[in-house]
């Protein structure tokens, strides 16, 4: 008999109603048992009757290979007896989803289904096995270790990797891309084509337009003037809208512009709700590249000069993005050959805050902070759609045939995430991280984005990965730690120091095993050992009594351990140019039954509006009478506490973090001392102060500003489905 999936038919099932009862208090208590009942009902009413049954593991794999559901190549790298052994191990782990939301999200978005979408072809265990076998690439011990890490949810591959691993008909394994455009029509044309191609194969695309000449600038051998960056933004937005994977999702892109670019005001205005339709960009995200000099000029209430990139490139012989504005500012101002205009720095600062209130944009990249802490030879000039990727790039030169006279380096993002609560319970923290690094290394080694040669070239030379973390607030609540407290900062500091230490160890081991290091390793501060100075000059050990107890049975490296690692890296190098990045987390954090990324939760019982379904409720992990006090909403939290926690992590992370600021239209009484005696409504000044605080604390990037309005709506709450691991 042919069975039909009932996941979208709410009339014949009980699990939606049971889940919705969580939101109805009983005697003043949250009835969490109703979610357990919903989970059980979902598995019984939906999953069991709608899953294809097989008489044996061999029959299952033969069917999936013969019908083009799984690739046979990665399966054939193993003796089938080992695959049986792997499955026996996974079954013994007794994995169970903890919440209805976790199971629902997995089966709705990740589980392999028949072509007619009528039957499930895999369980969570099956998806774990496919990931372990695929990323281990024939290494049986690594496959077992990865299966252990993923089934215990210590490691979560990024959505594209977790979803596509092993599938015969699949998208790319990587999450997002970064490309730059230089100041000529060939490069612009190539950039638009790249945006089309990259959006087609999946993932968000970041593009910097900082190098393009401003509106009104002269064009060589042509009577007339340049149109500036806004028309290019419109072309890119149309490209992303068109290239949307056959309508399966909206193409996603972000454009970055240096704040000292002459088109910066027009750039920001294009995102305003009341902008003319000819210039307004609705779906394109905006980001500003902000050098330290801007903060100085705004602080001193000075005028700031905006410099036209074509004049700067003519004088300096390199694209505008590669000029150190902070260092060269006075020289740029004094140079009569460089066209420039003036604005008041604080007026521009206010415009940024106004737009963040209205839309959540622009993202902010503190580019000097990123480069000052960059151990790699070269210059970081931009970020990605979620602001956590910060890697060096080199410009390309494109000729009239749209080919490369000089092939530069652009970026693809190979991401994964640790689940903090579960990794802290690992029997071997270092071994767990090593397996994660090796899984991510498989992705970077096998990524071939040949439609954009500059990305292919950059990946081939740098072998970059981005291991991050989710579940920080869940860990705090479970351990009775208040978000933003001294203990929370102490824990965050040590946890990310450990991630840094162990990823360095793994990268060094892989370099030694293969005899290969990333390009220009010898020019990095890893090669001369100077990168390790901060770990040799201060002792990174837990300071508070509670955090000392938490790490009592976990190895925390001493100065001597860092000295040994330094010597090993100098001797044998590193395989990966970059290793760490903290992305935002979307549906995958629900499957992990944890909180997203490093930020505080929004609600103790989160309400999700699912298409065609209605509302689904998700209780915060480990929610109980004991943990409720530690689960304060992000909207009720002083954002300086969030910045402090992120800053503790940032000092150990070679790339960036997707740090969101959560604001209320009406600020809670007493939250910010500068509001005392003044209006309790959020103002542009509030956002300006917080951006400056983040900059002072060493934060490299600020992602969305999300505002909870007085009419219970959220502004700036769009999610990037590409990088939300």
UniProtKB/TrEMBL annotation:
Job description of the protein: Provides the precursors necessary for DNA synthesis. Catalyzes the biosynthesis of deoxyribonucleotides from the corresponding ribonucleotides.
GO biological process: deoxyribonucleotide biosynthetic process
GO molecular function: ATP binding; ribonucleoside-diphosphate reductase activity, thioredoxin disulfide as acceptor
Top-level class of the enzyme under EC nomenclature: oxidoreductase
Enzyme Commission code(s) on record: 1.17.4.1
Alphabetic keyword roster: Allosteric enzyme, ATP-binding, Deoxyribonucleotide synthesis, Disulfide bond, Nucleotide-binding, Oxidoreductase
PROSITE patterns per UniProt: RIBORED_LARGE (PS00089)
Gene Ontology CC annotations of this record: ribonucleoside-diphosphate reductase complex
Family: Belongs to the ribonucleoside diphosphate reductase large chain family.
Pfam families: Ribonuc_red_lgC, Ribonuc_red_lgN, RNR_N
Catalytic activity: a 2'-deoxyribonucleoside 5'-diphosphate + [thioredoxin]-disulfide + H2O = a ribonucleoside 5'-diphosphate + [thioredoxin]-dithiol
Keyword ATP-binding among record annotations: yes
Name this polypeptide is given: Ribonucleoside-diphosphate reductase
Nucleotide-binding is among the record's keywords: yes
